[in-house]
Write a structure and sequence with these properties.
- Helices cover about 25% and strands about 35% of the residues.
- By secondary structure, the chain is of the alpha/beta class.
- A hairpin with a 6-residue loop joins strand 6 and strand 7.
Length: about 160
């Protein structure tokens, strides 16, 4: 996918763009998960000029990769996040989803610690939200609704200067 036809998702004043490294299926997964955050208020914009940041109140979030920690117990979502951040450069973001409640405290503390220490590239936790996602389980006669709480994080690597 070339930069000229990349989709930008606008959430309030945070426009989100996908890096060229993300596959089509990863982009679809991320879009579906982001739709949970704002109940479908994300707008896909195809005619966005990536060089024109003047119209945006906040900088564009460029999602480079995703960590899908759903169903993983603590500390695995945090460990996978740390590994994935190695491939994220300054100005790029990592989208993380998890279902373990400890992930919220772990990832928040990890990002906060990177800002308090003299880290080369401190981490900015742009999004830290929780949503519920329902699914049907069981047999057709006795199906019950299972609701998973999903913790969403967008972590941006910043320049320490």
């Amino acid at each position: 996918m070339s930069a000229s036809n990349q989709s930008v998702i606008e959430s309030g004043s945070y426009p989100i763009r996908f890096a060229e490294t993300l596959s089509e299926s990863q982009q679809q997964t991320i879009t579906q998960l982001l739709d949970l955050l704002s109940a479908g208020s994300f707008n896909l914009t195809d005619d966005f000029n990536l060089n024109d940041n003047v119209n945006w109140k906040k900088p564009i979030i460029i999602i480079k990769n995703m960590v899908d920690g759903r169903g993983l117990a603590c500390p695995m979502p945090l460990l996978k996040t740390k590994v994935a951040l190695r491939d994220v450069t300054v100005g790029e973001s990592l989208y993380v989803v998890a279902t373990d409640p400890n992930s919220q405290a772990d990832i928040s503390a990890f990002c906060q610690q990177s800002q308090q220490t003299e880290a080369i590239n401190p981490l900015l936790l742009v999004v830290n939200q929780t949503t519920a996602s329902g699914s049907e389980s069981g047999s057709s006669t006795h199906s019950k609704k299972v609701v998973d709480t999903i913790y969403h994080f967008i972590i941006t690597k910043t320049d320490s200067n």
